[in-house]
Amino acid sequence: METRYAHHPDDIKKYGTDELRRDFLVETLFESGQVHLNYTHVDRMIFGGVTPEDHELTIKLDNELGVEYFLERRELGIINIGGEGTVVLDGMEYEMQQRDGLYVGKGTREVLFRSKDAGNPAKFYINSAPAHHTYPTVKIDINQIDPLQMGSSETLNERKIYQYVHPNVCESCQLQMGLTMLAPGSVWNTMPCHTHERRMEVYLYFDMEPETRVFHFMGKPEETRHLVMKNEQAAISPSWSIHTGTATSNYTFIWGMCGENITYSDMDHIKMEDLR
């Protein structure tokens, strides 16, 4: 598990491209037969990818969290972006089709990940946040979610927002998680942009062609920066940073948040004239 530390926004003004990419971009999440986790000190979110091949995988920790097992004091959100798979929670099996989700409550001791076909492995993307209470585990089927219809083709941001770990779907302590799918011809997400002073966010971009690139914008509104990203890469967005992106083609992204509340609309919108 790789650790990323928190930053004061004034420090980012001095960063070049390599430093920004080192601290805010995660380039490798999914690798066959591997677990890749990232621990950010921004609200202590853990995110990453689990890609089982011909044998099951689990999350094994040494003393990184100071607990006996991973979810002793944490909750977990999972979305499968790969082939068919299975998640086993304390002996209970959950079949996971592509884009199926799962909320896992605090106190679950055993979490196992399996692929049905090693030639087309599941890709389990996970977000985990500290938790103070145990809420029930909930399986989430994308076909049972009524998405929010946002944006328009005229502004190049027509998109559907699927809320997975959200009060409309299941209870959680502080974790929120969902998936946004851009329509063909649309490339902007979350524009006009906003910040979340009371929580952080992580973006995972996927469903992209090899040559497609996303320009993910970050930084204070009055002094923005950007990360050039490709398929299945993630960006860390602190509470003081804007988060918005545009790309050379349409794409899908998973957003995960944790912090002071689980109010989806709690955001501070930025006027276009204030962006620099």
Question: What does this protein structure show overall?
Answer:
This protein has 276 residues and is mainly beta. The chain has a single domain (2-274), classed as Jelly Rolls (Sandwich), CATH 2.60.120. 4% of the residues lie in helices and 42% in strands. It contains two helices and 23 strands. It has a seven-stranded mixed β-sheet, with no helix packed on it. A seven-stranded antiparallel β-sheet has the order 2-20-17-22-15-14-13. A hairpin with a 2-residue loop joins strand 7 (85-89) and strand 8 (92-96). The radius of gyration is 18 Å and the shape is globular.
Q: Sum up the overall morphology in one term.
A: globular
Number of spatially distinct domains: 1
Q: H/E order of the elements?
A: EHHEEEEEEEEEEEEEEEEEEEEEE
CATH topology assignment = Jelly Rolls
